[in-house]
Specification:
- With about 280 residues, this protein is an alpha/beta fold.
- It has two domains: about 5-155; about 185-275, Diaminopimelate Epimerase, Chain A, domain 1 (Roll), CATH 3.10.310.
- About 35% of the residues lie in helices and about 20% in strands.
- It has helices at about 15-25, 60-65, 110-115, 115-125, 130-145, 155-170, 175-190, 215-220, 245-255, and strands at about 5-10, 30-35, 40, 50-55, 55-60, 70-75, 90-95, 195, 200-205, 225, 235-240, 260-265, 270-275.
- The strands form two sheets. Strands 1, 2, 3, 4, 5, 6 and 7 form a seven-stranded mixed beta sheet that branches. A six-stranded mixed beta sheet has the order 8-9-10-11-13-12.
- α1 (about 15-25) links the parallel β1 and β2.
- α1 packs parallel to α4 (about 115-125).
């Protein structure tokens, strides 16, 4: 029997859906990290939670988690130091920020670095591993590197077909629509102006809304500057998706671009920052 008595899950994506299924198979109840903004909803990527959601209804984290052995999966909780000591224990699974167990790991170590791989190891000692788990972990941890063939055991063409099926199912849309949006995204990347960023050159898509951009960028091999989703405090994010060199240049040049609080992992090929007030 697992030593975890509850799991808190961050933003929804195909990897998190698979993790939730793994937890259910292990008999571990899962709740979602949420915000009241002003309506209660699940957190977006990188967004701190202000509540726990169970069955679509909000609960205070302190009351919901007190006394539990908690598994935090890509979940960031506001003022967590105020209540974390009240849990019986808490283990964090993540790979996005410095200090996370999977942060800074290269493409060759994608599986144990991914959140899916970490959960699998904690529950079952790294097994059994499904073929889809390999693709899911590679796509989530370092999509561009996986498309370049840098993730052992991952074939780029197989990854594309799997991503197409998963994204169509996740969005509830026909695969043909995903393909069309991907082709449009690639055209937008190739048409975007080139701008210098330190010693590298990137495509600038800021100010444009482009569907299926992450896969198009990863398959194109270009480094792309683009707008991200607003955070909980409504500040606009700017992201750089591309080579580790371009990501490091973005972090270094962020203040010159009017950006603050740079975040992300260059080894994964994606970083970001917030527009300054």
């Amino acid at each position: 029997m697992s030593r975890y008595t509850i799991a808190v899950l961050g933003a929804a994506d195909p990897e998190m859906t698979r993790i939730e299924g793994m937890l259910a198979d292990a008999g571990i109840p899962a709740v979602h990290a949420g915000v009241v903004d002003p309506d209660t909803r699940r957190v977006r990527p990188g967004e701190p939670a202000t509540c726990i959601m169970r069955g679509g209804r909000p609960e205070p984290a302190r009351a919901a988690l007190s006394g539990h052995h908690v598994l935090l999966v890509e979940a960031i909780l506001d003022a967590e130091s105020d209540w974390l000591g009240e849990t019986a224990s808490a283990v964090r699974v993540d790979h996005h920020s410095p200090g996370d167990p999977g942060y800074g790991r290269p493409p060759a170590g994608f599986f144990p670095a991914s959140s899916l791989g970490q959960v699998l190891d904690l529950l079952h000692g790294a097994g059994p591993i499904r073929a889809d788990d390999i693709l899911c972990a590679a796509a989530d941890h370092c999509l561009a590197a996986a498309y370049r063939g840098e993730c052992p055991g991952v074939q780029p063409d197989e990854l594309y077909r799997w991503r197409l099926r998963q994204r169509a199912a996740f969005q509830g849309r026909p695969e043909a629509d995903i393909v069309r949006d991907g082709e449009q995204a690639l055209k937008a990347i190739l048409a975007a102006p080139l701008i210098p960023l330190g010693d590298v050159v990137v495509r600038d898509l800021r100010g444009q809304r482009v569907s299926e951009l992450p896969d198009a960028q990863a398959r194109s091999g270009a480094s792309v500057l683009c707008d991200g989703l607003p955070g909980r405090d409504s500040r606009q994010k700017v992201n750089l998706m591309g080579s580790a060199e371009a990501c490091r240049a973005f972090v270094e040049m962020a203040p010159a671009l009017g950006l603050v609080e740079a975040y992300g992992d260059p080894a994964r090929g994606i970083v970001g920052a917030y527009r300054g007030r």
